[in-house]
Write a structure and sequence with these properties.
The protein is an alpha/beta fold. It contains 20 helices and 10 strands. It has 4 domains: 105 residues, no CATH class; 93 residues, Arc Repressor Mutant, subunit A (Orthogonal Bundle); 58 residues, no CATH class; 160 residues, Rossmann fold. A 7-stranded mixed sheet has the order 5-4-6-7-9-8-10, with helices on both faces. Strands 1-3-2 form a 3-stranded antiparallel sheet. Helix 17 links the parallel strand 6 and strand 7. The longest helix has 23 residues. Pfam families: Methyltransf_2. This is O-methyltransferase C-terminal domain-containing protein.
Length: 450
């Protein structure tokens, strides 16, 4: 490899290998080729479909490589200009959803051809000239395409903006642009900038309240449907990976206490897949009322404890209290499962000491499609796979804005477990946006990362 073009050559090699592997795995799985212009979702778009390990990792490597190449090749001023206009990314998507524009395109007599802006103007009572500008901007994001001058059609990913889709539910979270807009003011707030309190967040600034996000939402029942749908979408998007990539079957006949389990979505999904498991949902009284459950206290060896997307809402002191109480209730054979994102620093290795890109690409080839194991990134790809992990990092910054929450690294989770009287036993990577962190009382084995 010519060292003069080492970065360019390495990224090109990684991208080519990832795409070749992706193509081979599509064929091996009897899946159709991808098309951005397809009118129907691809099987990979279904959240109930779990991609084989090599296919899943090849896709992530390809996305990471593409954006790293973009960062390398793009003029810096063009990047700055893109970010100057990025506020319109979400605004134009909101136009698609809130005005019925997406659903109108989804009902076009000929989905491949689409609809002319004159027809959209008549149907939606909106200025076709202005809609043209919005839609052409959305073309640059891949949501739609212009099939003829002034005629627009939904691309395949545009199906996620249609009524009933998980993507639309995820985008329905209200006030996110307002919270993002106050980020600078909050980070520099003279009294709050070093606080980790849930009472010192952008929520209090935007809504002029002294209440925490949770308590403020209770005063706004009109927001419940939007928030519920957004949480449902986020929870269901990667459910198949969570069900598959941890050996839940090894707990046959045992009981899992789903702490902060809401209305029981995770427990219900696990129970359908592993009918021998038993579940108890524990949550706040108002949530349990929705689930029509009875409060129960469960202690001892007969129970395992599950926290899914709970502890990230709390600073270390409060999270320690929660886990300490759980440790007090647990028996020597109990397992404590923490389903959360494990943040990975975005460090880029530019050396050949790790074996170069050959080692990572050989590791991709060696994946067995039985047990999921993420590949280590090749040189010039961030350790967290960069753009392929943007949805995870986006969740962390949104939780920071809502709850002063934090993204914890593996070392952070280990420290939190130990300060709560627990031992981090093993971390299971998932084909999902989170991992399963298995903890237990200290008598059990040492930490292992899978």
């Amino acid at each position: 490899m010519d060292t003069q073009f080492q970065e360019l050559d390495s990224l090109q090699r990684t991208l080519n290998h990832a795409i070749d592997t992706f193509r081979k795995e599509l064929i091996a799985a009897n899946l159709p080729a991808l098309s951005s212009q397809a009118t129907e979702p691809h099987p990979l778009d279904d959240n109930n479909y779990l991609a084989p390990t090599r296919l899943y990792e090849a896709r992530r490597l390809a996305i990471a490589s593409i954006v790293q190449l973009k960062n390398l090749l793009q003029y810096p001023f063009e990047k700055a200009s893109e970010d100057a206009y990025a506020v319109y990314d979400r605004a134009c998507v909101d136009v698609m959803i809130s005005t019925g524009l997406a659903d109108c395109l989804g009902k076009a007599p000929d989905r491949k051809k689409g609809l002319h802006v004159d027809d959209l103007q008549k149907e939606l009572d909106m200025d076709g000239r202005k809609l043209t500008i919005v839609l052409r901007y959305l073309c640059t994001q891949g949501w739609v395409r212009e099939t003829q001058e002034g005629v627009f059609a939904l691309n395949r990913i545009g199906n996620e903006l249609l009524e009933g889709s998980l993507g639309r539910g995820r985008l329905g979270s209200p006030y996110v642009p307002e919270l993002a807009g106050t980020l600078v003011k909050w980070l520099q707030h003279p009294e709050w900038k070093y606080s980790d309190s849930v009472l010192h967040t952008p929520v209090q600034i935007v809504h002029k309240t002294d209440l925490s996000c949770f308590d403020w939402v209770k005063t706004r029942p009109d927001l419940f449907p939007y928030l519920s749908e957004a949480m449902r979408a986020a929870g269901n998007a990667y459910i198949r990976g969570l069900l598959t990539d941890y050996p839940w079957g090894s707990l046959e006949g045992q009981t899992i206490v789903d702490c902060g389990g809401g209305t029981g979505a995770m427990s219900i999904a696990l129970a359908k897949t592993f009918p021998s498991l038993r579940f108890i949902i524990q949550d706040l009284p108002e949530t349990l009322t929705l689930a029509k459950a009875q409060p129960q206290c469960r202690k001892g060896d007969d129970y395992h404890y599950l926290f899914r997307h709970v502890l990230h809402d709390w600073p270390d002191d409060d999270a320690t209290k929660i886990l300490t109480r759980t440790a007090e209730a647990a028996g020597p054979k109990s397992k404590i499962f923490i389903m959360e994102t494990v943040s990975i620093p975005g460090i880029i290795d530019t050396s050949e000491a790790s074996g170069g890109d050959d080692a990572a690409l050989n590791a991709l080839n060696a994946l067995n499609n039985v047990t999921y194991e993420p590949v280590s990134p090749p040189p010039f790809i961030p350790a967290n796979l960069g753009a392929a992990s943007k949805h995870r990092e986006g969740l962390v910054i949104q939780l920071l804005s809502l709850f002063n929450a934090q993204g914890r690294t593996l070392a952070d989770w280990k420290r939190l477990a130990e300060s709560s009287g627990l031992k981090l036993v093993k971390v299971y990577s998932m084909r999902a946006d989170m991992s399963v962190i298995e903890c237990a009382l200290p008598a059990q084995k040492t930490c292992e990362v899978c």
